[in-house]
Amino acid sequence: MIDKDEQLLRQFFSEAAHQKVEDDGFTERVMKRLETEGRLQASVIRLHTITRLWTVFCISVFVILFVVFRGWELLAVHLEVMLRTMAAQSFSINLMMLFSVVFGLLFVGTGEIISSETARK
What we know:
By secondary structure, this protein is an all-alpha fold. The chain is built from four helices and no strands.
């Protein structure tokens, strides 16, 4: 019984495999588009790799220049000057400026939250 079922299935699928469905070139267009999208994705990956290499190169140049010009000494001097002069200065806070900065940060933060929520949908 099982052999007969298998034989019938093979016969059915062999007949279906030889059938040609007319699609007015739809299959060819889909295959060409898939090839184009594959090439586009490969170029995006290549561009992503190039940008990462450029980033690594720029960071390497920065580190080399920082070491060559002894950047840590400059940072130490600036930090020392800032700490010594900070104690001598009196701070005056302009409340209008403080409110403007806080309002601006809230406005931008709210906009970012709204845009991230709409991007998820």
